[in-house]
Amino acid sequence: MKKTFYLMVFLILGVLGNLSAQMTLFKGTFDEALQKAQQEKKNLFVDFFAEWCGPCKMMATEIFTQKEVGEFFNAHFVCIQVDVDAKENKDIAKKYNVTALPTMVFISRDGKEMRRVQGAAPAESLIKEAKIATGEELSFEQLYEKYKKKKNDLDVQQQLLIEAPAFIATQEGYNQQKWGTRIESLFPEYLKNKKIENMVNEGDFLVLTMYHRTTSKEDPIFDYMAQNYPKFAKEIGKDNVARYLVSLNNSYVIQLCQKGDLNYKKRLERVNGDLKDVYAGFSFGNLSVLDAITLLADATYSLYRHDENTFFEKMDTYLDGKGDKAELNDYFQPLQDIAVVYEGKLSENAYRRCINWIAKALTFDNVGASNRTRLLMMMGDCLKNTGDNAKAKQSYNQAFLASAQIKNKMEMQQLQQAIQQSLQGL
Hints:
Blueprint: H1 2-21, H2 30-40, E1 43-49, H3 54-63, H4 67-76, E2 77-83, H5 90-95, E3 103-107, E4 113-118, H6 123-134, H7 140-149, H8 154-169, H9 173-194, H10 202-211, H11 220-227, H12 229-236, H13 238-259, H14 264-268, H15 276-279, H16 289-304, H17 308-322, H18 328-341, H19 348-361, H20 368-385, H21 389-403, H22 409-424
Parallel strand pairs: 1-2
Antiparallel strand pairs: 1-3, 3-4
Helix pairs in contact: 4-6, 7-8, 8-9, 12-13, 13-16, 16-17, 18-19, 19-20, 20-21, 20-22, 21-22
């Protein structure tokens, strides 16, 4: 009996512990919540929602329930949910100009708006917004004003650069353009003042990945990082640095191939040269790293010269060599590339060869609803253009069924419309 009692106590305490870790939502009216905030000397956090709002439900079940969110919000705010569709809440929603959902408003205990978040937000962002509302952190605008007064403060410049993309995404029209221009000019200034040799740290590496997204023949930043790869790898992590440098180098090689610039072959020499250690962690099945990258580059060069046979030959050699290491994107990307370059007007031979790649791509477990829909649509197009309308119709219908699983409703509707048009064209 004692064991049962102790077990029950343990379970109850465990449940209570989990509940106390999440955001505590006040049960009562807005006015009662505001009165409670005044009594407790706290501010108010109001989640304006509706029962039909999917993102609102996601915030309530996945974000408000997180321990870090609960701990901060419970300590600083009285939190309440306000259903905008309820008759008694119409005036409150109008007063705080709720025009989209979810809208979350931080309100002072005298009823004035302090800050708002519109749309779903991850826990980290929501806590940051709460800290700005309480004055524990500066808003982006306040941070920029601080920078204007202390233009030599590199820490402030770094913080601005890191926070800028998320902030600019919330702006519209002229404001978005204004802030974009300001930040665009800030990165070169920061780079000049900080100097690349002093940027071997996680914060500056993040800045580089955000603002130095392409490389070229003459690139002091890329070359310094390549020459000092062990130093960057030690401070930031080998995988992160390698992925960044490889991504830059591969993108530049592909860019040269697309333009028909044979200098891509010279650039490839760096794969087994000063970039050998950078590429060392990447595996391509039975292919060496240089052979794999060369095959992809040669295939791309051939594709953009409309040399269809060489393109398929190089890609098939690459895919065969990679074997079991081949991933979904190894098939999906070249399918997209050839559709773009040929504008959907391939030879019958090309359509037949694409069918094999599509069939292979559809066997991967991580295809996802959106990619599965697109692949099945491609399959339908290929089958139609090889004269098999019956199987094409079957693929289009399968694509329509797959599209029903796409979470983004706008994307789902657009794809379904395209599928219906394809079916009508059979």
